[in-house]
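REQUEST ID: PR-0412
SUBMITTED BY: lab tech R.K.
PRIORITY: routine
TASK: structure prediction, single protein chain
INPUT:
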Amino acid sequence: MSARDTDWDGVRLHVVTGKGGTGKTTVAAALALALASGGRKVLLAEVEGRQGIAQLFDCPPLPYEERKVAVAPGGGDVYALAIDTEAALIEYLEMFYNLKRAGKAMTKLGVVDFVTTIAPGLRDVILTGKTSEAVRRREKDGSRLYDAVVMDAPPTGRITKFLNVNHEVSGLAKMGPIRNHADTVMRVLRSPETAVHFVTLLEEMPVQETLDGIHDLDEADLPIGGIMINMEHPSALEPDHLAAAGDGSLDLDEIVRGIKSAGLEHGAEDIARALAAEATEHARRTAMQRREKERLAESPHPRYTLPLLSDGIDLAGLYRLAETLRDQGAA
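STATUS: complete
OUTPUT:
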């Protein structure tokens, strides 16, 4: 495997967050493929129970076990895990209290659901703990089992509280296995081996939520990664035509002549007006994208731009996005 410099050398836990609808899971999957390129082994972990990873990789719903879902360019492997809170809690009880049988009994009685509902912080402790354990896990020869772990994390509005939950637990539990576990997880999450990446669209609300999330992470002393701008719309017009569309000065007569020269004589004027309106909307969107990009440029963190895929997201699209991330130095 050849060495390759990236913006995130030394990072082993990549946490991917973003406002709903920004394509967070898609970007997390593409990042996992990019990180696995060249013969590496990467785990992609899902914590929200939506089976989004299975849909992206066109495979059956994932069980609570690490399962290979893709081969990356150059021979690397991507494994996926949909973390089940109940199963992870049983592991937790067995690991620290030797209570595996009690955990199974609690599941049958519905106690686990009850406890995680009235104490949602416990769910976050379990999810972050399982992911950090995968980062630390080693083979029998002492080597790391995974070269990197990518977490498809909760949305931006909840990410700081989600990642910082073990700090709160550590403050409540002054000693014992719970305190030790919480401290171990926070050492991973606050170390240089972790980076929290934000996925956004070039729209006002996702950009503002991204900037707010970066501020909140900084306040909580959690490591900030890059900003991944997803689904950027390319400009379909030349700069002078784009400017004319934006200020409403497109020459309708010229558009009509072009339509008629293409053999569309009937209704050419109506078609021209519709095209002019579409061009104006395109100019508005392009201006908005430029404005929001300028806002993001004020942040000191690396930025990566992913294109809008006109054919939608499938496996081929994921590989294309992974290649784009690698080309920009994200993996």
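NOTES: The chain has 13 helices and eight strands.
REVIEWED BY: pending
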